[in-house]
Amino acid sequence: MLELFLVTQNNGIGSDVLILFVAVVMLLGTIVLFFYQFRQRRDLLSELDQLGKVKKHNIEYELVLKAMRLCTWHIDVAERTITYDNDYRERNDCFVPVPGTSLDDLAAVMADSDRSRIRKALDDICSGRTEEYHEISRVKVTHNNSTYWNEAYATVASRDADGLPKTIVGTSMVIDDRKRMETALVEARNKAEESDRLKSAFIANMSHEIRTPLNAIIGFTSVLPDVTGDEERKELINLIQENNQKLLQIIDDVMNISKIESGKEQLVMTNFELNDVLRSLSDEYASKAQPGVTISTMFASGSLYVTTDLNRLMEVLNHLMSNAVKFTSKGSVILGYDPQMGKRLRIWIQDTGKGIAPEHQERIFERFFKVDEFIPGAGLGLSICRTMAYSMGGDVGVESVLGEGSKFWVEIPVS
Q1: What is the pLDDT of residues 17-47, one digit of tens each?
Q2: How far is CA 372 from CA 281, 331, 356, 378, 401, in A?
Q3: Which of 3, 152, 234, 314 has the fewest CB atoms inside 10 Å of its own CB, making it the most exposed?
Q4: Nearest to 254, CA basis, from 384, 387, 373
């Protein structure tokens, strides 16, 4: 600029022209600088906006992880190692490998039945045979030898020049609650199916069991007017009365099950002398026993007053005594009880009957189950005993040796 000024002075160019030229040059420079700064500002604002979006994205990403209770991880395929990046699972005993843990060590913490399947699934995605990974497995908890349910998803994040997986990213979540819900739903479905099966069995059994004594009653009643002999008439009347009792017993059994399971019948507590009640029961069945079978009692105390639901207790004992008398053709049936244990009392009935095989000793308390289909009965008696005992807060059971006899017991709370 100085050289230009000297030249213009030497050539006689006026100073005003020079000043104008300098001003124009400076103005152009200012404009250029302004546009440069404007562009810089625009780029800076754009970057700030992008940073804000990234920050917002990270916050939303973290919120999703927390809301879903996920943990995120990635696998270095070349090194065959796994590293957990974030962990928002609620359980504090979940497996969290140190960075760079080998995939073999990861598979080792899986439950034995899941380990080979998980190892194969990891090998498949790492080798490129599959594009995605989705596995549900049980993971061991080292400090208490328990397990928890884990569900994992993964996909290929990057590939090498040959198109093979280089990095795999995935998520894991604990699904214990879902598994419990699934189990509950399966149990509910099984109960519904069992209820439907029992309903069908109930209809079939009741149809047969009710029809049998009813046919006998109708048949013998129709023959009765034509019988002239006193002995024959008396025998027919006895058969009619016997079948009447069988029919009433079946109906009573069904009504008892219905009332207890509906929950509408409450316990009626009664205080009574147990020895007197059991002696009366023993005397009642002495006349029903088969010839040569003795009925006796064995009490742990000379006198014992207890408070419980007498009607339900007698219902249980009647069924147990009836079975003992029915299946005992020789020997004895003994009714007794053990010394009271705190607030619980065990009453038992021991017989020398045919006994029960070990595989049937629990099943006999199921509805409609009969060890011998040729023995009359609906198969409801022992089921009612257990239902009655449960309703009183007690239980029933059996100790038996096939061919030697059985000892049925009912244990109830008393005061």
Answers
A1: 777 777 777 878 777 777 777 777 676 666 6
A2: 26, 21, 11, 11, 16
A3: 3
A4: 384
